[in-house]
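Re: weekly structure request thread

Next one in the queue (363 aa):
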Amino acid sequence: MSWNVFGRCLRMITFGESHGPAIGAVLDGCPPGIPLSEEDIQPYLDRRRPGSSRFVTQRREADRVRILSGTFAEEEGQKPVTTGHPVALIIENTDQRSKDYSEIRDRFRPGHADYSWQVKYGVRDYRGGGRASARETAARVAAGAVARKIIPHVTIRGALVQLGEKKIDRARFSWDEVDRNPFFCPDPVAAREWEEYLDAIRKSGNSVGAVVEVVASHVPVGWGAPHYAKLDQDIAAALMSIQAVKGVEIGDGFALAAMTGEEAADEIVMRDGEPHFLSNHMGGILGGVSSGQDIVARMVVKPTSSILRPRRTVTTSGEETDIVTRGRHDPCVGIRAVPVAEAMLALVLADHCLLHRAQTGQG
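Done, posted below.
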């Protein structure tokens, strides 16, 4: 059995490999009557697209999405709407350079899925990592754009808050800055510092990791279900499923270990006749159910494993050797993970919106 399906009411399956003819996604469970065209999806793919700056892989992909099914326009010139049937999305691969990987076809790349997948399946696609490649995340971003249409009242935003050892200054945090620099960085001073820092990393043939933060605002109270469909549980699983992610936290996460119960408690008062929280250490989720506060999550993205510095490894026949991974790779794969994290959060929230509606009759 394979596991390429995500979600409960809104179910996504992605398909395709890094160097195959195309990648894509199928969304099942999308409600009918939602206006949806390719123009609604493309802006999100453009944010994730490779080759957009010198700080990401120089693979040149247009990442143009096509909707193959699941929408219908009653009249010519009218915007299509979803039909309630599976929405199929496809993105063609147009700039594969498989020859870049010919010299490592028999060597396991440290940090990659090469060894574990070879042992599990008995075969692996060495060309860019096949399905283990972050190229697959373009399909997730396309599907996430559709999910956003299901929950238009929810605002989902992401930012890079740490690049390697360099962190942002929270006092300078501004969402308006995120799309003004190539790092999705909310701190304009840090963004300028990161340019010189990552240039040096890239020119040395090395890579660094990153921390991505995603925030969802205007989420109603009540989404999520204990104990085995907790909202934070599903968010953590969704973010952890992204390639190269090795850690996830909700709210203050691991920092809560250093707090006292008095410090960590999100106190509640009444304002304008409604409960109001004085802090949000829990990240907008209590007992697995949304509290109405901003949902806050962060994920750690490991350094890109494909680097130009020699690393020790073994061959498929068991011989020790060295490896240098040539080709076009991100010096920090965490940069382009920002729109991917947004997409996965959108998919989880849209799924839980439909679950909540099914159980309670509320939207």
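DSSP finds seven helices and 18 strands in the chain. The helical segments are 38-48, 114-121, 137-150, 188-203, 231-240, 261-264, 337-360.
Next request, please.
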